[in-house]
Design goal:
Elements (H helix, E strand, L loop, with lengths): L5 E6 L25 E6 L6 H9 L8 E6 L5 H8 L1 H5 L3 E6 L4 H10 L5 E6 L3 E2 L3 H11 L3 E12 L5 E2 L9 E3 L3 H5 L10 E4 H6 L11 H12 L1 E14 L14 H8 L7 H21 L2
Parallel strand pairs: 2-3, 3-4, 7-11
Antiparallel strand pairs: 1-2, 1-5, 5-10, 6-11, 7-8, 7-10, 9-11
């Protein structure tokens, strides 16, 4: 089964690098433990895994651990990890878990089950974080504790081009709770699997990532969390999403996005007007993308 790979970041709800301490003297602390656990899934990303891991190790927020779940890679992704980060693996700064290929949802769920933190962030192995991603997420968690999902803005690089900023649903200085997650997500991508941080409790309440699903399994989780919980967002471009042609998405071309299937089968769930619009856009974008790829 071909799939894209992911690096999941498990975050504590507070903390800051020394260079920011004086400026954050009034910052609220909502968890005195303050540790970070980083966990993730990897499948055939030899060309990008080092860039991804380096972007995590270079964070200004330094109190974290990386856990990589290798989901049966058949390229040299794991060899790159073991040779490049031998010291970090030996010191347990990076925990490497290896399993047979079972799909991205199983790998993510394994990562979640191995996390010890109260908050979980995700980063695809194709993508990278800028230096202050974890720091700004930790500030969002501290400043907006009623939320269960936190997101930052992102840029897109197509085939290694210069990254460009994505369209926003908010003004450039927006930072706070999102009034209508689905309406805003219909304008721009508020949450994706490289820039979202979720409360572990809220994630577990969804039942975890749906096993065997190849399209929209992550969108399904963000939707379920947003249906029952508040979301906080900051227009701060701390993520670079790399769109590069490889074979990891072949299995997704002919499949219907899972959120569309789930809500079609569970008609007892009341859908708001904005959620209906968002679901339609998910299906439409995927359908259009599939047509273009077959040309």
């Amino acid at each position: 089964i071909q799939q894209r790979s992911d690096i999941l970041e498990y975050l504590s709800p507070f903390g800051s690098p020394n260079e920011y301490v004086q400026n954050l003297s009034n910052q609220k602390v909502i968890n005195s433990e303050g540790s970070l656990t980083t966990c993730g899934s990897l499948y055939n990303k030899a060309y990008s895994i080092q860039r991804c891991i380096d972007s995590v190790l270079n964070q200004s927020y330094i109190n974290f651990q990386i856990v990589v779940v290798n989901d049966g890679s058949i390229d040299n992704s794991v060899q790159i990890l073991k040779s490049t980060y031998k010291e970090q693996i030996e010191s347990k700064k990076i925990l490497l878990i290896e399993q047979k290929n079972q799909g991205v949802s199983v790998a993510r769920n394994v990562g979640v089950s191995n996390s010890k933190s109260n908050y979980i962030c995700f980063l695809d192995a194709d993508d990278e974080w800028k230096r202050d991603f974890l720091f700004k997420i930790s500030r969002l968690i501290s400043d907006f504790p009623e939320a269960s999902m936190y997101c930052l803005a992102h840029e897109v690089s197509k085939n290694n081009s210069i990254p460009t900023k994505k369209k926003q649903a908010f003004e450039e200085n927006f930072r706070g709770y999102v009034e209508d997650f689905f309406l805003s997500s219909s304008i721009s991508d508020l949450a994706n699997s490289s820039k979202v941080c979720v409360k572990k409790e809220a994630l577990l309440e969804t039942g975890g990532f749906p096993i065997g699903i190849t399209t929209g399994e992550d969108l399904y989780i963000w939707i379920l969390i947003a249906l029952k919980n508040r979301v906080a967002y900051e227009v701060s471009y701390e993520v670079i999403v790399h769109q590069q042609t490889d074979n990891s998405r072949i299995s997704r071309r002919n499949s219907v996005p899972y959120p569309f299937i789930y809500f079609s089968q569970n008609k007892n769930i009341e859908l708001t007007k904005s959620l209906k619009k968002y679901l339609f856009l998910i299906f439409y974008k995927h359908f259009l993308s599939s047509l273009l790829k077959f040309k």
